[in-house]
């Protein structure tokens, strides 16, 4: 067993364990500790306790001292510097025309490093930006790209429920949220209704999922075949809190709720089949969530699509008329060209016929002339022979 103390560096951040090293610390005291990125000042949120060494992340760092008045003053100065660095970095991002959104700036306690947190759709070449910032602040510069859930945690806001965001209020770590958590609670699988302002599935879907899992034990899954007092049917919905099933009666197609204990199970769907179906539904939902788009963007795009639907149909009908006109014009052109070709061929044939006739007439005239010339001479020769 190892004696540790839990310290948090941000308002709602991860808790890190340190070796007290003989320093007496009470709850909510400030302490200066050694971390992997240098000297930091944090707040004690877990008093000294013993935990198994297997649960520790080695090596365990030591607590240097309890924070003094000078340490607290230095911490406040760093906070003021962070605001100035934020504005400076915004100007430099605009100057270099980089497609990135600056979220937060953090000074290490000893001032040896300045960390800029940003979001971007893809990779950003910020080498020139780092050079400019290093020349301005005369210290080490680190630019760290974060996800949209981390951005919501840092910036904060109001959720669909009207309360402050859970990730910005009390959630230390993000836990994976699956579509199954919404499905077992019989929630509408609509991205607009089950996603937060970050555009991802709401973290609060996990809060009651374990309770629903416990209550669903021994109950048939959706798609199972059962026998009721009104005949055989298929389970369409499971209500674990009221212990009842929504059954679709075979043949009639009617749907009705039946108590769990009044229903006999014939063929039950396995958990593996349900898990496969949940994976497919989650993939479809991810596509519907439009690649990490925020809730506001999803609503705006949906409204824009609905408004553009009749216009698209109108444009299609216009395009069809235009296409028909173009087709008619093209056919007319083709017919005209064919007629011209046929006329040219006929003209050529007539010319050839005329030329042949002229040549025939010339030949006949030549023959006649020759016969007139030879006529008297041939007669004289015949007389001499006689």
Major pleated sheet:
5 strands, antiparallel
Strand content: 15-25%
What's the tally of helices?
Answer: 9
Give the spatial strand order of the biggest sheet. 2-1-4-3-5
Q: Estimate the helix proportion, in percent.
A: 40-55%
Total number of beta strands: 13
Question: Which sequence of SSEs, written as H and E, runs from N to C?
Answer: EEEEEHEEHEHHHHHEEEEEHH
Q: Which secondary-structure class do the elements indicate?
A: alpha+beta
Give the integer mean of the pLDDT values: 78
- Say what oligomer this is: single chain
Radius of gyration (CA) equals: 44 Å
| Unreliable sequence segments | 290-296, 309-327, 374-386
The best one-word shape is flat
**End-to-end gap:** 159 Å
Describe the structure concisely.
With 386 residues, the protein is an alpha+beta fold.
Describe this structure in words.
The protein is an alpha+beta fold. The chain is 46% helix and 22% strand. The strands form three sheets. The protein has a five-stranded antiparallel β-sheet, with no helix packed on it. Strand 7 (113-119), helix 2 (127-137) and strand 8 (140-145) form a beta-alpha-beta unit. Helix 1 crosses helix 2 (127-137).
Write the layout of secondary structure elements.
Elements: E1 2-8, E2 15-18, E3 30-35, E4 38-51, E5 63-66, H1 69-96, E6 101-107, E7 113-119, H2 127-137, E8 140-145, H3 148-155, H4 166-169, H5 179-183, H6 191-194, H7 209-216, E9 225-228, E10 231-239, E11 244-249, E12 255-259, E13 264-267, H8 271-288, H9 295-385
Parallel strand pairs: 7-8
Antiparallel strand pairs: 1-2, 1-4, 3-4, 3-5, 6-7, 9-10, 9-13, 10-11, 11-12
